[in-house]
Amino acid sequence: MTAAAGIGGRLSWKALWQVSGLGTSFEAVFDDLYTNVFCGEDAWELLPNTATSLESLRSWCSANDCQLGVMSNMDSRLSTILQSLGILDKFDFVLTSYEARADKPSPVIFKKALEKAGLPPSSHALHCGDSFKRDVAGAIFMNWTAVLVDGRVDEVKPLEPTEDCNFSVHGDVLAMRVPHIGHIEGLLAG
């Protein structure tokens, strides 16, 4: 079930797991999984460059009067997860698909991100993510700079259309592929 269906994260996950055959112990098991296991710090791990890269981006954004946010196809637990990872304070805002009532690549969630940042709907932004379909396609549709984080590459390079990911870029819109988010500040400064 998607966020656009209007069902909250907890209810969606509960409906999915009720078919597990756990019977009367379902409620206790579900509560532990939903609240502790999949929301706890042991369930999530930052990639090696993430903390230092976010610190650098936070400093750059502060010095250049811009907002740094998270936009994710996640439920309301995202802020708790980011807090447990020690990175929530790096962001000006957190926007989930459940809050926006739309999943990436829908333009709705991208427009809500601009709204959260206090920017007009026609503003240009940079969006990075690890999914061509959800992140790059959504950003390009909005005429934003799109950055695909792809650990299979070892340098920053233009994102070229391929058989698997076909797209067209118009005007000044930029689409790049980077090995990790530490390269984003260079794209902003350049």
UniProtKB/TrEMBL annotation:
Q: Which InterPro entries match?
A: HAD-like_hydrolase_domain, HAD-like_sf, HAD-SF_hydro_IA, HAD_sf
Specify the domain of life of the species encoding this protein.
Eukaryota
Signal peptide bounds: none
The family database entries (PANTHER family) matched by this protein are listed as: HALOACID DEHALOGENASE-LIKE HYDROLASE DOMAIN-CONTAINING PROTEIN 3, PTHR46191
* NCBIfam families (alphabetical): HAD-SF-IA-v1
Please identify the protein, giving its name as recorded.
Hdhd3 protein
- Originating organism: Symbiodinium pilosum
